[in-house]
Amino acid sequence: MKPETWLPHVTVAAIVERDGRFLVVEEHTADGLRLNQPAGHLEAGETLLEAVVRETLEETAHPFAPEALVGMYMTHFERPGNEGVTYLRFTYCGAGGEPDPERALDPDIVRTLWMSAGELRACPERHRTPLVMQCLDDYLAGRRFPLDFVHTHSVGPKQ
Q1: CATH number of the domain at 12-145, out of 3.40.47.10, 3.40.50.360, 3.90.79.10, 3.30.43.10?
Q2: Which residues sit opposite 34 in a β-bridge?
Q3: Distance between CA 59 and CA 110 in Å, rounded?
């Protein structure tokens, strides 16, 4: 019997700051309502930058223009009955445009909020994961890597 292939889940997240407040989503999770940066899974065929732009728009209706990579994070969550799941998260910061009032948010998103770092720090029990604050703290500490820090190799047609 062939052993199972282990694959981590690749996710992206966006940090959008406006007037000292940060764009977050309140979303339904298996653990109840939680706060998170706009975030989601990398889909087949897209780059990390395309994914973070798409996920931010889908979850907040705000267009997003990435300016820098804040960091890459790996975390593992145990799940009852299996080996759990490992996530590789790429967090970007950038500018958010005005929301499209006609655009519906992803079904699990209850609402978007603008919260200060202090407000977020005061409610860790409401965070989707500890990475919410870790990524924000790294951003506030000035961690920035150029967008081309992660190279995307595109495989074209065979010749």
Answers
A1: 3.90.79.10
A2: 27
A3: 9
Report whether pLDDT(5) > 90: no
User: Which pair of structure tokens corresponds to residue 155?
Assistant: 């495989």
Do residues 68 and 146 touch, judged by C-beta distance below 8 A?
A: yes
Reduced to 3 states (helix: H, G, I; strand: E, B; else coil), residue 123 is coil
Look at strands 85-96 and 21-29 and give their pairing: unpaired
Per-residue pLDDT of 19-42, as tens digits, reads 999 999 999 998 899 999 999 999
Cα torsion 17, 48, 112, 31: sign? negative
Between the CA of residue 111 and those of 47, 54, 60, 106, what are the distances in Å?
Answer: 27, 17, 8, 10
Q: How far is CA 84 from CA 6, 23, 78, 80, 149, in A?
A: 11, 29, 4, 7, 29
Confidence (pLDDT) at 3: 58
User: Contact 75/11 with Cβ under 8 angstroms?
Assistant: no
Judge contact between 101 and 61, C-beta under 8 A: yes
